[in-house]
Amino acid sequence: MNQLAVFGNPIEHSRSPDIHAAFAAQVDVELTYNRILVPDNEFAPVAQRFFDNGGLGCNVTVPCKGDAWEFVKEAGENANLAEAVNTISLLPGGGFRGDNTDGPGLVTDLRQNLGWSLGDTRILVLGAGGAVRGVLGSLLQEEPSLVHLHNRTHKTALQLVDRFQSCMKPTGQLAAVSKDELEKDYDVIINGTSAGLADQAIDLPPAILGKDSCCYDMVYGAGARAFLGWAEGNGARATSDGLGMLVEQAALAFEIWFNKKVETEAVIRQLRQMETE
Ligand code: ATR
After folding, report:
1. Ligand 1 within 6 A of 130 CB?
2. Residue of 36, 74, 77 lying closest to 58 (CA atoms)
């Protein structure tokens, strides 16, 4: 049996086991997929034990993605840019490979599932923590005309921009903006802060929204309500939480482990249905 798992803390609410069970049924793969709680600073020994006991691969979520990047021998470009790994697989010659499918998962959800354009658009990203670091490279690769990064602590946004400017080919599109420097009518606004998880609203000027603005929260479910409610109340054209991103990043992880592509649309629908039941 193929043994997979997701590691994090907290972990009990993770939807990943349901998602991977649905993918496995589609392509006739047999697997077990468990949730594994990682005590503080224990990622490496807990992950090593899982693989020593026959694990085939794992997903990694908050707060272990940085530790997972340290743990692997080899990592993909997205993972190195983010210094964070959300998918670990076995290397043929021994050792572990780390990938980060969060950025491509977000981009797939925005473009394919929601039909929002990214190329040649003006994007505002809120937050400058781990979640944003994980997706910024993928957003920049879509060649938007600008990406503004706005964070409660402006210095952290400046540091993140500096890091990406030096890692990727220097890009004029990316800038950290303070509250006073926020522009009007962004095409796409992505909330990558954890404010909603703590039921906190972000203090934002409504002028950043125009009638064609699309607003996305990388969190799904209740944690996305504060930001998306604000966006709807201020006239956004479209809004979405991050459930599609969760399923798309999982589909890319599944493809890494089994070299099989899976359908995501029905799985997103199924999870939405479970949410309302
Ligand atoms: P994650 O891994 O979820 O990104 P993180 O690295 O701790 O978690 O980052 C949390 C992000 O949410 C940060 O950008 C944080 O802003 P600060 O850098 O100023 O701390 C942001 N954040 C959290 N609560 C917030 C709030 N109430 N209003 C605005 N931003 C908030």
Report:
1. yes
2. 36
